[in-house]
Write a structure and sequence with these properties.
alpha+beta, 19% helix, single chain
Length: 171
C-alpha cells in the first residue's frame, strides 16, 4: 500500500510539474560567456575564460589579428577575475571590430550583438582594448588587457591532399 501511495504522489508531482513548466527560450537563458563563445565559434575549449588562451596553444591556431568567427580572449583583471571571451562578428578596420558576447557588464546573463571594440595597444597588436559602453554611447574608459584571438582552425588535423591518387578503381 505504501509503495502505491508513493508511486501515486510521484506521478501526481510529475504531472503537475509538466503542466506548470514552460520551456525557456534562448533569450531567457542566463548565458555565460564561455558557453556562448564555444557554441557560436565551434571552438571546443572548456573552463573559465582566462584558461582558454593556454588551452588553445598547440590545439587551435592563435594570433594577434582579428578575423570574423575568432574568439577574443580577455585577461583576468579587476572585477573580471575569470577573464572574458567574445566572438568577432565583424572587422571594421585594422583597429576596430564588432563582437558578439554574453554576460558582460550591465547585461548579466544576456547576449549582446555587434558591440564595438577598439584596439588601443601601443603596438597595434590587440593586447589592450576598449569596449563600447551603451550608457554613454561611446567606448568605455576602461582598458582591458587581452591575450589575443583563437581562430576556429584546429592544429594538426589532417587535410585533404589533392595530389593523392586513388588506385584500384575503374580505368
Amino acid at each position: 500500500m505504501l509503495k502505491r501511495l508513493t508511486a501515486g504522489l510521484v506521478a501526481a508531482t510529475l504531472g503537475l510539474t509538466a503542466l506548470v513548466s514552460v520551456p525557456a527560450t534562448a533569450k531567457e537563458l542566463y548565458w555565460q560567456c564561455v558557453t556562448f563563445a564555444r557554441l557560436t565559434s565551434g571552438i571546443e575549449i572548456r573552463g573559465d575564460a582566462w584558461t582558454w588562451w593556454q588551452s588553445a596553444q598547440g590545439a587551435w591556431r592563435t594570433g594577434g589579428a582579428p578575423e570574423v568567427g575568432a574568439v577574443l580572449v580577455f585577461r583576468p583583471t579587476g572585477r573580471m577575475t575569470r577573464g572574458h571571451v567574445a566572438v568577432v562578428s565583424e572587422r571594421l578596420t585594422d583597429r576596430v571590430i564588432r563582437i558578439t558576447h554574453a554576460n558582460w557588464g550591465g547585461s548579466r546573463g544576456k547576449i549582446e550583438e555587434n558591440v564595438t571594440v577598439a584596439d588601443v595597444s601601443a603596438g597595434n597588436d590587440w593586447s589592450a582594448v576598449k569596449v563600447w559602453y551603451a550608457p554613454i554611447q561611446d567606448l568605455g574608459s576602461t582598458v582591458y588587457p587581452t591575450y589575443g584571438f583563437i581562430y576556429a582552425e584546429r592544429l594538426g588535423e589532417p587535410t585533404l591532399n589533392a595530389s593523392v591518387r586513388v588506385t584500384g578503381g575503374q580505368p
